Amino acid sequence: MGALSNIRVLDLTRILAGPWATQILADLGAEVIKIERPGSGDDTRNWGPPYLTDADGNERASAYFLSTNRNKDSVAIDIADPAGRALIQDLVKSCDVVVENFKVGGLKKYGLDYDTLKELKPDLVYCSITGFGQTGPHASRAGYDFLIQGLGGLMSVTGQPDGTPGGGPVKVGVALADILTGLYAAIGILAALRHRDATGAGQHVDLSLLDVQAATLANQASSYLVSGEVPARLGNAHPSIVPYQAFAAADGHMILAIGNDGQFARFCALAGAPDLADDPRFATNPKRVENRNILVPVLERLIAARPLDWWVNELEKAGIAGGPINTIDRVFANPQLQHRQMAIELPLADGTTAPAVGSPLKLSATPVEYKTAAPALGEQTKDVLRRLVDLDDAALAALKTNGVIGG
């Protein structure tokens, strides 16, 4: 039994941030009922290629959709139809959590906003995920990850420095603002459930992609607030630690991450240049940061003199953090990740399986359970409505005929 096996979640989200949050809850054992539009479903069902195909080559689901919707039930209901709205409200009565990522106020006209639903269920935990939050001068604006990476400052510190080859702002290669917002949403929901269990009261959890992006600038934001100096792009280098960047070995690129002066001394000895560690310009990290433009070219020459595998092996022996810059195929060939079961196969309804990335959560008493791959559109509609709304076959048939439900 998962840690959240007594929790039921009504998932009104689509794309990435919301589904990421609800997938985390599902992995932890919550029953997650994903509400989708009949006929089309979550937009990401069609965000491909690549698609998972069946034995005959027919497209089944996009890799994007599969990445964020495992362990969920898909229920196809048209919330624009009054009968569909009534079904959602009936489902809410038996749920602990509602998660939605509509524009601010977008669900009010359907009677599915927090103020309306808390009258039906006062202890409801209701999480809203938007680009800019429920309040403020920009609350009504639409927000997407790429836009937020720019507005939220991440792209200003990502990429090569201005004036160098390839210089300019670059977005992160994963929709990180969405992913981080999904993580914070899951944390906020768990905190609200803890409060509900202690007091009996529900609450509204308000998540903004822009807030999360600003918060997760972490040391870069803190450095600005402390110093008043605006951080610049440093490519693969670190603003406060040297050496902490990518270097070219004789036959490939590697990461060298020196965290303290002792590690730097061990590295210098390994590289055949022990005198560097005693040089007053480089003996301490603050001095290495101050003199990075002198030190880094010296390190580049030393590292370029030996092959990548030699560096990887010798750095590990010396207890120094370093390693290759892997392509994703090499990531999943890594024996450490294989041991940690980070590549898995999930069952589909027809008995076949779909590949997936495993959860990083490793709990000793309540481990993550992988039940199903992402569902087909509306796959559990009838089952959920029979079980939670007590509809019989005739009622379900009439709703489907009228286009209120799918599946």
List the helices and strands and how they pair.
Elements: E1 8-12, H1 17-27, E2 31-36, E3 51-53, E4 59-62, H2 63-66, E5 72-76, H3 82-92, E6 97-100, H4 114-120, E7 125-130, H5 145-151, H6 176-199, E8 203-208, H7 209-215, H8 218-227, E9 244-249, E10 252-257, H9 261-270, H10 275-278, H11 285-290, H12 292-304, H13 308-317, E11 321-324, H14 328-333, H15 335-339, E12 343-347, E13 353-357, H16 381-389, H17 393-401
Parallel strand pairs: 1-2, 1-6, 2-5, 6-7, 7-8
Antiparallel strand pairs: 3-4, 9-10, 10-11, 12-13
Helix pairs in contact: 1-6, 6-7
Looking at the structure, the CATH topology of the largest domain is: Rossmann fold
Number of strands: 13
- The name of the CATH architecture of the largest domain is 3-Layer(aba) Sandwich
Major sheet summary line: 6 strands, parallel
* Corresponding CATH superfamily of the largest domain: Crotonobetainyl-coa:carnitine coa-transferase, domain 1
Which structural category fits the helices and strands?
A: alpha/beta
Total count of domains: 2
Widest beta sheet: strand line-up: 5-2-1-6-7-8
Beta strand %: 15-25%
Uncertain spans, ≥5 residues at pLDDT below 50?
none
N→C terminal distance:
28 Å
Q: What's the alpha carbon Rg, rounded to whole Å?
A: 25 Å
The number of helical runs is: 17
Order of helices and strands: EHEEEHEHEHEHHEHHEEHHHHHEHHEEHH
Mean pLDDT level: 97
What's the CATH class label of the largest domain?
Answer: Alpha Beta
Shape: elongated
Residue share in helix: 25-40%
